[in-house]
Amino acid sequence: MVDRAVGFATNNSRPWSIAAAPPSARYGRCRTSLSAGKGGGKNKKKKSKRTAQTTKGFGAPPPRLEEVLAAFKTRAPDDADARPCPCGSGEVYGACCGPLHRGDRPRATMTDVLRSRYVAFSWRNIGYVMDTTHESCRDYRDDRVAWARDLDRGGMFDSFEFVRLSAGPEEINEDDGNEGFVEFEVTLRAKEDEDNPVAGQETLISERSRFLRNPKDGSWSYASGDVRSNVAGLEDTTLNA
């Protein structure tokens, strides 16, 4: 059995995807008059008391995305910069995907996005997954707090270990240089668990991802992808179609 999110083309409404999220919370404004009326001292005290009562009911302010992300668990080791980068480039994380995750280096190629997103999923960097998702992608959410929470609950492959990434060459659209594609394969291994009958088994996920480039700054983002798996009976099925 596998997580609801498979591949990097997560989908909120179809099989093999993160579960649909509740509607975005909407915060209304409470109109309250805080101006004091004229009159004697006694009346002023009464109105002041009434005014204080009307300020109640606003509740706690909505959570900030930074606070929500900071509360999520991470799989990144403490000495991550000195470790081999999980993307398989042969470099250490601090010289490979680390600068991309920190915003110290631009996402100049589609491969930059692919490899750095693989590491972000592997180490649970939810903020980076959202930052590299193009706004035209069907996974994109305007309510980033709700989006982050949904990813944390069911979109970060917590039942698997990331084994390897194998990426193919970049393909640029001849008619639109700001669109391109990369085919890749990801091998996941089900985590050891006495209650998991498939513990230790590996699953191969293949995807043809579509990327879009921002013509203003040249940075690439993930836009969509067709996901397939080697799970018996689903070899020729596009899982997120």
Question: Secondary-structure blueprint of this entry?
Answer:
Layout: H1 41-54, H2 65-71, H3 98-102, H4 110-123, H5 126-131, H6 144-154, E1 160-173, E2 176-190, E3 202-213, E4 220-229
Describe what you observe in this structure.
- The chain is of the alpha+beta class and 241 residues long.
- Helices cover 24% and strands 21% of the residues.
- The chain has six helices and four strands.
- A four-stranded antiparallel β-sheet has the order 1-2-3-4, with helices on one face.
- The model is unreliable at 1-7, 9-52 and 237-241 (pLDDT under 50).
- β-strand number: 4
State the order of secondary-structure elements, H for helix, E for strand: HHHHHHEEEE
Give the strand content.
Answer: 15-25%
In terms of per-residue confidence, which ranges show pLDDT below 50 for 5 or more consecutive residues?
A: 1-7, 9-52, 237-241
Tally of alpha and pi helices: 6
Concise summary:
This protein has helices spanning 41-54, 65-71, 98-102, 110-123, 126-131, 144-154; strands at 160-173, 176-190, 202-213, 220-229. By secondary structure, the protein is of the alpha+beta class. The protein has a four-stranded antiparallel beta sheet with strand order 1-2-3-4, with helices on one face.
